[in-house]
Amino acid sequence: MSVHHEVGGALPPHAETATLEGKNKVMGFWLFLGGECVLFGMLFASFIALRNQVPDGPTGQEIFQLSIVALSTFILLTSSLTSVFGTMALHRGNLKMLNFWMIITVLLGLGFLGLEIYEFVHYVHEGHIFSRSAFATSFYTLVGFHGAHVAFGVLWISLLVISSIKKGLTVVTAPKYYVAGLYWHFIDVVWVFIFTVVYLLGKVGP
């Protein structure tokens, strides 16, 4: 029996795990996020060890602009909220509202990336280039790696929205939306740690 995407249609409760395939996708994705936590943990450890290694370059205290970073943080955290609204629409079987909130999430993600690019350009003009110091290298590796994850999430969600025009919302497509939402929450949580460890502590100084 085909599963339709209309509100109040045939979607079962928690459609993302209504089938064995869906359960396996969600479980596999949690394992993937575990690996990602290890990766980011290593990058954080490297940054903390190297953040004061600035023999011939500007320090974070000198160049970080917390107003821009705070705006970026607000945008990304807001996108986490909109993705929650999307998941709520998913559980109601409402494809229209699901895509609406996911599109808003994508737009906010693009806004975050735009601010991050602007921030990086500013730092380069201040002499804070990748090879300038161990601090610069560890900073761009950690923050840039997170930015790449945001860009991937934007692309992933955009493709889901586009493909839903043809495929609709079913027990096959619902898990894809659900794990995309999990992924988005993950990169938001990582950013909270980056904001605290990299920017706030960096602005305070050693």
TrEMBL record:
The chain crosses the membrane at residues 29-51, 63-86, 98-118, 139-162, 182-202. Belongs to the cytochrome c oxidase subunit 3 family. The keyword Transmembrane applies. PANTHER family: CYTOCHROME C OXIDASE SUBUNIT 3, CYTOCHROME C OXIDASE SUBUNIT III. Pfam families: COX3. It is a multi-pass membrane protein. It is found in: Cell membrane; Membrane. Keywords: Membrane, Transmembrane, Transmembrane helix. Gene3D superfamilies: Cytochrome c oxidase, subunit III, four-helix bundle (1.20.120.80). It comes from Paenibacillus radicis. This is Cytochrome c oxidase subunit 3. InterPro entries: Cyt_c/ubiquinol_Oxase_su3, Cyt_c_oxidase-like_su3, Cyt_c_oxidase_su3-like_sf, Cyt_c_oxidase_su3_a-hlx. Residues 27-203 form the Heme-copper oxidase subunit III family profile domain. SUPFAM superfamilies: Cytochrome c oxidase subunit III-like (SSF81452).
